[in-house]
Amino acid sequence: MKKILTITFLLILHVASAQDLIITSKNDSINAKIIKVQKGMLHFNFVKNGEIRKTLLPLEAIKTQQRNFFSTPEVPANYKAKNSYSGPKYRIAIQGGLSYLLAEAASSVPAALRAHAKELKSGYHWGAEAHYLTDENFGFGVKYSMFYNNNIEPNVSVTFSDNTVLYGIEVTNYIHFIGPSILYKTQTSNGKNAWVSGLALGYMGYKQKEQIGNRHFTSTGATFGLGVDLGYDIYLSEKLSLGFMVSLAAGSLGEIDIEESGFSQTLELEERENLSRIDLSVGLRWNL
Questions:
Q1: Class of domain 90-287
Q2: 3-state SS string for the chain
Q3: Which of 235, 90, 119, 110 is closest to 165 using CA atoms?
Q4: Lowest mean pLDDT among 16-30, 31-45, 79-93, 181-195
Q5: How far apart are CA 178 and CA 238, in angstroms?
Q6: Sequence spans of domains, the chain
Q7: 53-58 contacts at long range (C-beta below 8 A, 24 or more positions apart)
């Protein structure tokens, strides 16, 4: 009876301390401790350069996995891996594309200028962002974007408060955003692409250049801005990917400064000026 108990105990001890075998599609053998299989990815601990590391591989890149293959473990059975992420540390992205302002034209806009206001709802944007990756899913960094649009209506007349009538109007708008950002990305089951989402909070600056006849006005303002991103990256190589993204940039102004010929005044707005827009963009991402 004692012999049976001893053999049973040794078998349990062997299974508890045994190590797993992973053979990759490139015929590399890894003495590892498999943690879990999730969303087509195999998560495991292994030893490299004397350090225990935690990583993952897509199941498509694995030829064989065999539990309790090695009798002598490299990773202790009770080891809890710390964050030893060894993948890319930085993600740098640039993008650009089309934008659409969400604000409706104010009821005070004259009927003759409504077509002009409608043209100013569409525009372009470009931007860049850089994130430090703390693991395969999460990163933090900074995001910048700039929106631009322009429209000219040469035959429109504008009447001022002193009954002066001027013809022709041109408006150019700029909206800048910069602020800290967090990034979350998760690879697809085949490990070749990734879903990416982001959230940024920061400074949103507004500038409008307006020419009516021979008069020139510059309006400026600043507010708190919010950016929300959802994108999809297609890996072109180990370090480069092509990204598609839809973003919401949100913010509104309560007051603006208007300058003409060196004279300026601050105007409190009866209704907050909505600067929110939707961006559709395409760009490149570097994982370094």
A1: mainly beta
A2: CHHHHHHHHHHHHHHHHCEEEEEECCCCEEEEEEEEEECCEEEEEEEECCEEEEEEEEHHHEEEEEEEEECCCCCCCCCCCCCCCCCCCEEEEEEEEEEEECCCCCCCCCHHHHHHHHHCCEEEEEEEEEEEECCCCEEEEEEEEEEEEEEEEEEEEEECCCCCEEEEEEEEEEEEEEEEEEEEEEECCCCCEEEEEEEEEEEEEEEEEEEECCEEEEEEEEEEEEEEEEEEEEECCCCEEEEEEEEEEECEEEEEEEEECCEEEEEEEEEEEECCEEEEEEEEEEEC
A3: 110
A4: 79-93
A5: 29
A6: 2-70, 90-287
A7: 53/81, 53/84, 53/86, 54/81, 54/82, 54/83, 54/84, 54/85, 55/85, 55/86, 55/87, 56/136, 57/22, 57/24, 57/191, 58/187, 58/189, 58/190, 58/191
Read off the amino acid at residue 152. Answer: I
Class of domain 2-70 as given by CATH: mainly beta
pTM: 0.74
Count the neighbouring beta carbons within 10 Å of the beta carbon of residue 128. 15
Compute how many other C-beta atoms are within 10 angstroms of the C-beta atom of residue 19: 22
Distance in angstroms (rounded) separating the CA atoms of residues 227 and 200: 5
Residue 243 near residue 279 (C-beta atoms within 8 A) = no
Q: Tell me: the pLDDT tens digits for 217-235? A: 999 999 999 999 999 999 9
76/35 Cα distance (integer angstroms)? 13
How many C-beta neighbours within 10 Å does residue 243 have?
20
Residue with tokens 């004397």: 50
Please tell me the predicted confidence (pLDDT) of residue 72.
Answer: 65
